[in-house]
Every structure is written in structure tokens, then in C-alpha cells.
Amino acid sequence: MYLTFLVLSSLTLVSARPSSNAVWAADSAIARGQGNGLTSSETPTVSYEHGEFQTGLRRLYDLTGNQTYFNYIVEGVGKFVDNNGNVGGDYSFDAFSLDPIRTGPTFLYLYNQTGSAKYRTAADIFRRQLDEHPRTAQGQFWHKLMYPNQGWLDGIYMGELFYAQYTAMFEPTNQTAWDDITSQFKLMLNNTLQNATAPNTTGLLYHGYDFSHVASWASADRGHSPE
Fold first, then answer.
1. What predicted TM-score, i.e. pTM, was given to this entire model?
2. 179-195 pLDDT per residue, tens
3. If both were cysteines, with which of 32, 195, 218, 224 could 210 make a disulfide (CB 3.0 to 4.6 Å apart)?
């Protein structure tokens, strides 16, 4: 009897297991209300973590056609983008932070999927932020206004992914934009790549750098971080 119970229990677990770990993880996160456009205090937030999760859900939706994933993205973005395309929640244009722009590719995706003008408007706001975003003397985007002259690796996938996708969709012949995007990658590489002569060299990139060399952690040569 005990053996029969074990076998039946095992069969139940196997049958309940999703088709992939990606599906399992997504369904679990959705069940817990993660990445839904709200903070733990239930206030709207424009969060790079949520932007990352939305990217995963987009890919799962494209692969599986499961409407639940698409609807979750729409509902999440709806927490901070209103019907006129204004980006609300905790987003501040004047804070000039690259972090919230990680949600920008979701705006582009939803505009492509639905044709709704509000998503184009929201994307335009982020694109305008990049036009006005402060830069180092070399031209690298500051990661945030509160961290003057600091370029972080995070900024590449926060800002440049959106920058490139927006350009490809709406300004494909804008060579100035393409050159700027390329420059962002090159500047980050040149300022953060570990030198071959560095102790315990790995050939990887440091997390970021302070072009002004003011930060307490800035190295003497290029102002890069210790790790």
C-alpha cells in the first residue's frame, strides 16, 4: 500500500511539472505577483528588475502563445503608463537614471504587438531622456545624475538595448544615433577592461568607472572600480 502511494505521488509530481524550467520559473513568479509594476508596498514602480522579467515573459509568450504571459506584461506596464503614454510611478525624467529605461524595450514590444500610441509615447519619453542625459567628457552616459561621471556596465543593458531597438524601429537611417550607440560600448570597454598586467587578471570588465576619479574606489589609472 505504501509503495503504491509513493508511485502515485511520483506520477502526480511528474504530470504537474511544467514543460520547461523557464515556464516553471515564470509561473511561480506570476503566482507570487513579482514583476507586476508594483513595489512590495503596492505602489507603481518603473523597475529594471521588472523590465528584465518582462523580457523573459515576452520570449515565453512568443514561444508558447500562452496569453497569460502577454496579459501579465500589459497589466504590469499599465500600473505606470497611463492612457496618454505618460510614464508615472517612481520614474523621474530629471533624475537622469538609466535604470528605468530597461522597461523601454517592453514599450516597443507592446507598440509593435498592439499598435497602441501610448506605448510609442512612453518610448519617446525615454528616448528624449537619452538626448538630454548627462555624459562624461568622452561622451559616456552617466549611470545616474546622483553619480556624476560614473559609467557602469549595467548602463549598457539598461540604456543601449533600448537605444538600439528604438533606433532600429523608428530611425533606422539615423547614423548619428548608431555611432553614439557604438561609442557607448567602446567607451565602456576601454575604461573597464582589465589590463593584462593587472594582478590575478581575468580579461573581464570592471563593474564601472568614475571618469572624474573623485569616487573613493576609483583607480589611479582609469578610475575603474576594484571589482
1. 0.89
2. 999 999 999 999 999 98
3. 218
